[in-house]
């Protein structure tokens, strides 16, 4: 209990002397169904800002001159709206996750009390179904071995879901 | 239905993952930790031995999300080129639940066998035009429902069961056609948290025949118009 009181006091002291970090929160974001805990994120008017280092760690996306990119996938940021997405407070560069989600038509769910954000499928992922090409996925079997749908290409497949419930 | 050019990929939509789905995949291995498994399931497992098809565990309901599925079992036929030739439909491959569904699995199994044999020439393969009409991308509210459900799952898994319920309810509100969102949520805590029961919900829509609409199979008298996905 003593330790908790002490650390509580220390936190209050820190927040008092470093006002610029007053709105930084421990946050959990779920991206591509993988949860990542972030030591410091900023929530500002319903917008979630994370560091570009955390962006890479949680989503594998990186801010590059041509846009926000991961492997072959690249989403250019509108030139006139750069500051909606990126803010520099050296040595840290902040990235607006919620503005990016809106740009790529990605659904976002948020629990303020738990400071947890869930980023759903982007429109490029959702549109795939209407092309009639079977959306690809990789999932484990009971032994933990991974199987990818497209590895079965060349065979006819009955894909069927079920559940224990 | 063994054929070198045909594969069944069966995917468990279970937030609890192997813990919940495992006993149904490998009953003999799990019988000691789950003694309430139905005796028929144990007997069948003893008789047929290990499953001859691929069974995957999908804790995040990724397949339901990607394919816009709302219930289980849902089947999709995918041809050799990776193209969908029959989209989401009720896919019973045995008669275990016939008492509830009133549906015989035989017409569906026969259709499947016909496709395995004749490929794209099978009468059960849908035309591109028809497929384009019934397969659509998720609407924004359906996508938001999936995000709310995913958030609920994350909170549940991190031990915040009460906090998860509000998001499961929101997912159910945004995508009322999804039985997956209802039944998985009920199973994680209790139907009481949602002020309803599965049976009541099925009655509300008109009973089990609406809950499980029969597949639209050419030549079948009972074929119903396929629902918009």
Q: Which CATH class of the domain at 21-131 in chain A?
A: Alpha Beta
Order of helices and strands of chain B: EHHHEHEEHHHHHHHH
Mean pLDDT of chain A: 89
Give the helix proportion of chain A (percent range): 10-25%
What pair of chains forms the biggest interface? A-B, 52 and 80 residues
By DSSP (H or I, 4+ residues per run), the number of helices of chain B equals 12
CATH fold title of the domain at 21-131 in chain A: Ubiquitin-like (UB roll)
Architecture per CATH nomenclature, i.e. the level-2 architecture of the domain at 21-131 in chain A: Roll
Our count of helices of chain A gives 5
Count of discrete structural domains of chain B = 2
- Tell me the structural class of chain A: alpha+beta
Query: How would you classify the quaternary structure?
Result: heterodimer
Could you estimate the helical fraction of the residues of chain B in percent? 40-55%
Structural class by SSE content of chain B: mainly alpha
The ordered string of helix (H) and strand (E) elements of chain A is HEEEHEEEHEEHEEHEEE
Unreliable stretches covering 5 or more consecutive residues of chain A: 11-20
The gross shape of chain B turns out to be globular
Topology summary:
The complex is a heterodimer of chains A (165) and B (229).
Chain A: H1 2-17, E1 24-31, E2 34-44, E3 47-51, H2 52-59, E4 62-64, E5 67-70, E6 73-75, H3 82-85, E7 86-89, E8 92-96, H4 97-103, E9 108-111, E10 116-119, H5 123-127, E11 138-140, E12 146-148, E13 156-162
Chain B: E1 6-12, H1 18-25, H2 27-30, H3 39-48, E2 54-57, H4 62-67, E3 74-78, E4 84-90, H5 98-101, H6 106-118, H7 128-134, H8 140-157, H9 161-174, H10 179-188, H11 198-204, H12 208-211
Parallel strand pairs in B: 1-2
Antiparallel strand pairs in B: 3-4
Helix pairs in contact in B: 8-9, 9-10
